[in-house]
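Me: I keep going back and forth on a fold encoding question. No explanation is needed for now; the record alone will do.

Assistant:
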Amino acid sequence: MENQRKVVLYIAQSLDGYIARENNDISWLSMVEHDNEDYGYDAFIKNVDTVFMGRKTYEKVLSFGIEFPHKGRMCYVLSKTLEGADENVQFFSGNIEDLITKLKAQKGKGIFIDGGSEVVSAFREKDLIDEYVISIIPILLGKGIRLFKETDTESRLKLVESKVFNSGLVQLKYVRQE
């Protein structure tokens, strides 16, 4: 069981808990961009072969006009409206617990939750997230799209690592307590 694949939420949020402004604007994330500093993302993504994201996040990524960043990985987009697949992703509207159970039983690398809040909520509601790596950006947005929606599900976590960067970004890593 020790070698079982982990589901990891790796994401950034404002100090007051938002992942985007109300209009889905994420330009504020660039305030912590510095040459030669990726906050551990490159090392993290090398250990991932499966990605989950929501339809809105997928559409946002496509809007950047860059090559799809998860080429070569199995990428699922959770969507209630889109079906099938395109050149980048498999659209998925089925039972997330069943799919994660199946994926964890297979050999492979990490499973990355890339956002947004609907996907995080779906995984959290079913207690499917093994690790939370949350980068806190030093900004108070005041309102917007929350990383964590309200829920009746309580999750106990254990802090296993914290890093402070010169930009003011603080990265916290938690694991789910059994």
The domain at 7-176 is CATH 3.40.430.10 (Dihydrofolate Reductase, subunit A).
